[in-house]
Amino acid sequence: MRLAESRGLTADQVRTVMVPVVTAPSDPNRVIAREPAVSDLWASLR
Q1: Which helix (H) or strand (E) holds 42?
Q2: Are 18 and 31 in contact (CB under 8 A)?
Q3: d(CA 13, CA 26)
Q4: What superkingdom heads the lineage (predicted)?
Q5: For a designed S-S bond to 38, which of 2, 12, 32, 33 qualifies (C-beta 3.0 to 4.6 A apart)?
Q6: Distance of CA 34 to CAs 16, 21, 27, Å?
Q7: What's the burial of 2, exposed, middle or buried (CB within 10 Å: 0-12/13-18/19+)?
């Protein structure tokens, strides 16, 4: 299977993750990535 190819994948082979966020101090209607958790996530995806 090549990068970004999903043909043949079943639901049990797919894992979803969410970027950890917090409310932005400058605007309560926005969110920003929560450190250091987001750095750990990016590192695990590399």
Answers
A1: helix 37-45
A2: no
A3: 39
A4: Bacteria
A5: 33
A6: 18, 5, 15
A7: exposed
d(CA 21, CA 30): 10
**14-33: buried (b, 16+ CB within 10 Å) or exposed (e) per residue?**
eeeeeeeeeeeeeeeeeeee
Q: Are 20 and 33 in contact (CB under 8 A)?
A: yes
Name residue 31's beta-bridge partners. 23
Q: Is 4 helix (H, G, I), strand (E, B) or coil?
A: coil
- pLDDT confidence of residue 3: 74
